[in-house]
């Protein structure tokens, strides 16, 4: 049985490509990532918004960009993104982490 290790440096490289659309600066340069955990191919990212009232469309875009960029890393099975310090954090977190649409398994 071989489980593929996710390369933390590659995850960080992908995260460094995510740009705050309002400011135009990479979120890694602004030190917005609070926590980055990788376990068994599952990546948990926690970050904080630049301001509590950052436009919700930008907070959602950053969260979605974080998720989609890290999903490209070899060995990643799932990505969960959580923003804090934003007045609509709960709504943004629910939206970005909702299960992908598609055929749902039948209940037993």
What would your notes on this structure say?
- Helix 2 (56-71) packs parallel to helix 3.
- The protein has a single domain, classed as 2-Layer Sandwich (GMP Synthetase, Chain A, domain 3).
- With 108 residues, the chain is of the alpha+beta class.
- The mean pLDDT is 90.
- The chain has helices at residues 8-15, 56-71, 89-97, and strands at 33-39, 42-48, 78-84.
Keywords:
108 residues, alpha+beta, GMP Synthetase, Chain A, domain 3, three-stranded mixed sheet, 3 strands, 19% strand, globular
At a glance:
The protein is α+β, with helices and mostly antiparallel strands and 108 residues long.
Element pattern in H and E: HEEHEH
- The rounded distance between the terminal residues' Cα atoms is 28 Å
Please report the total strand number as a whole number: 3
The CATH homologous superfamily is termed: Fe-S cluster assembly (FSCA)
CATH class equals Alpha Beta
Largest beta-sheet characterization = 3 strands, mixed
CATH fold naming: GMP Synthetase, Chain A, domain 3
Radius of gyration: 15 Å
What is the total domain count? 1
Specify the overall morphology: globular
In DSSP terms, counting alpha (H) and pi (I) runs of 4 or more, how many helices?
Answer: 3
Task: Kindly report the spatial arrangement of strands forming the biggest sheet.
Answer: 1-2-3
Classify the beta-strand content into a percent band. 15-25%
Oligomer: single chain
Going by helix content, strand content and strand pairing, the class is alpha+beta
